[in-house]
Amino acid sequence: MKQRANKGAAAAAVCAILLAAAGCGSSKAKSSDSSPAAASTSSATSAAGSSASSASGAPSGQTSDQLQSDYETVVSNVLPSVVQISTDSGLGSGVVYDSKGDIVTNAHVVGRATSFTVTQPTGGQPLTASLVGSYPAGDLAVIRVGNGGGGLKPAKFGDSTKLRVGQIVLAMGSPLGLTGTVTQGIVSALGRTVTSNDASGGGAAITVGDAIQTSAAINNGNSGGALVDLSSEVVGIPSAAALNPELGNSAAPGIGFAIPTATATRIADQLIASGKVTDSGRAALGVKVIGVVDNTGSPVGVGIAQLEANSAAGAAGLKVGDVITAVNGTPTPDPTTLSQVLVTLKPGQQVKVDYTASDGSKKTATVTLGTLSG
Questions:
Q1: Which one from 98, 139, 229, 334 is the annotated catalytic residue?
Q2: 359 counts as catalytic
Q3: Whole-angstrom Cα distance, residue 170 to residue 163?
Q4: Residues 51, 57, 62, 66, Cα dihedral to 10°
Q5: pTM for this structure?
Q6: Where are the beta strands (DSSP E) in 64-179?
Q7: Residue 91 · residue 25 · CB < 8 Å
Q8: Most Cβ neighbours (<10 Å): which of 200, 269, 333, 335?
Q9: What are the CA-CA distances from residue 195 to residues 227, 281, 342, 374 (Å)?
């Protein structure tokens, strides 16, 4: 899917690349990548430097032997907490969240499954897990291993808001079914907006805001694993890797994305508590939409197919059949672009919504945005 550039405040820069959600691949390393294609729109923070995946130098004041020792310590501390998750349709990764057996992963890893097989990198018998809750809009889910977690070791989740561009990170997971794989790189950029089409979820677009861009290799099967700093703290949940459309959608080395733990823990806590998300921190219009095209087939906006209960758009006077053409000054020619605009806004924020009414008249409404739930 080709990326569409948002105009105005929604995005300050655009990356003309494709992405692949890095989960639910075959359990065999030789298998091809069957993950879905996606598009990425960058927000304000720019990338810094080149990939550190083959870095040979240690940070200032630290010898290479000390850095290697740090890597080994981090792997020893965190890798036992990063598991492989298998479903009938594929596999991905997960991170042990607590002592009750809860495991955080991506929604596109669990797909529509409700039962799972969990394999530990340290060996032992596979464990059985069940679905606690899934939040596809944010590509996060929680599953739970019974009997108190079967001795699983919880990871330590750090504060992703303190990450810095250039900081060394390790990616841990089960790419191509290779359980317990570790790659390394840096934080390349912060605050990315990434939109993917998830085939396992029926092809619906998933937009993740404030994503971490990293040069650590993220491959098919890494989704739901751990992005870890040198303090042995999980700072992100890897979710997507870039593809290069100019090279036949082959892998674009050194460009991967992770959901920050500030988002992941907020969503996970709600899923564990109630199985649903009511406080996502993400803005919503409270509508279900469809793409609308003109007589040449060109997209012209998003039509309102349904107003949800307590719809923010409905409260502002919009009706089923109206076609939204811009939000907060940014054109919204299709549902994907609308999602990318909304992820840059906040619940409670008042924005101008331009739309074409069902009678063909052009109108503008002031909408107080609601919260995206799920």
A1: 139
A2: no
A3: 13
A4: 90
A5: 0.80
A6: 82-87, 90-96, 102-105, 115-119, 127-135, 140-145, 168-173
A7: yes
A8: 200
A9: 19, 17, 12, 18
Identify any residues that bridge with 226 across adjacent strands, giving them in sequence order: 172
Local structure of residue 175 (DSSP, 8 states): G
| DSSP assignment letter at 147 | G
Radius of gyration of the chain (CA): 21
350-356 and 362-368: which strand pairing?
Answer: antiparallel
Cα–Cα distance measured from residue 273 to residue 83, given in angstroms and rounded to the nearest whole number? 22
Catalytic option among 223, 232, 280, 311: 223
Structure tokens at 44: 């304000």
Q: Which residue is associated with the tokens 């059949």?
A: 321
Burial 10-37 (b: 16+ CB within 10 A, else e): bbeeebebbbbbbbbbbbeeeeebebbb
| Closest CA relative to residue 14, chosen from 6, 25, 23 | 6
Domains and CATH numbers, the chain: 1-276 (2.40.10.120), 283-371 (2.30.42.10)
Would you state the torsion angle of the CA atoms of residues 61, 65, 68, 74, taken in this order, to the nearest 10 degrees? -70
CB atoms near residue 196 (< 10 Å): 29
- Nearest of 300, 336, 86 to residue 197 by alpha carbon: 336
Does the annotation mark 196 as catalytic? no
Per-run averaged pLDDT (10 residues), the chain, 374 residues:
35 42 49 37 40 44 84 96 93 95 96 94 91 94 89 95 96 90 96 73 71 92 94 96 78 90 97 94 94 93 94 96 96 92 94 95 96 88
Residue 223 is a catalytic residue: yes
- Find the helix or strand (DSSP H, E) in which 64 lies: helix 64-78
